[in-house]
Specification:
208 residues; alpha/beta
Amino acid sequence: MKTGDPQIEKKIGAILSTLSLREKIGQTMQYSLNKIDKSSDASIGDFFEKYPLGSIFAGLDVIAKWSSGENSTEIVERCQKFCKVPLAVAGDLEHGTKNLVLPGPLALAAARDEKLAFEYGKWIGRAGKAAGFSWSYSPECDIALNWMNPINNHRGMGDDPELVAAVGRKMAYRVGVSGKIFAKLGENGVNIRMITQGPEELTIIVGV
């Protein structure tokens, strides 16, 4: 994928030229931050030397710990300093972060206010950036058609496709904020082989 900016392309090329094949492959990988030994800088350094990842992920369990006192920015900075290429830091930010706690997406959808949805997405993006995130896995855009699925029921935006699309579209128009729609495929063991996206960035065709 090209950025279209010659200066940026030059910098990317310069960075890639310093990486081994193993390190380049590592740039395509993401690992849970919760499973990395963060007890000391030495343990973090040993991990990233062994596994030169391109991205780390913080789920709701990790973010809950941060809300109870752990310093998320410090933890991310400690990981970053052992990486040749800056890590893409992703997280489940449906409810915001430690410094900005918002009502869940279901409450947002119930408000039926596209302008509010835009502001909701904007402030999640800003709060996430301040906490060290570069990638927010929100909103949850699966349609809640299975009442037995706990993930979609309380992390999604309901069972009305038009409402989910309207709210999700406004939230997704923010840098660093992306929609999640693949939970249902994953829970049913469906392997995704190909994805193509429509020009309006709402419709997606998935090859399995």
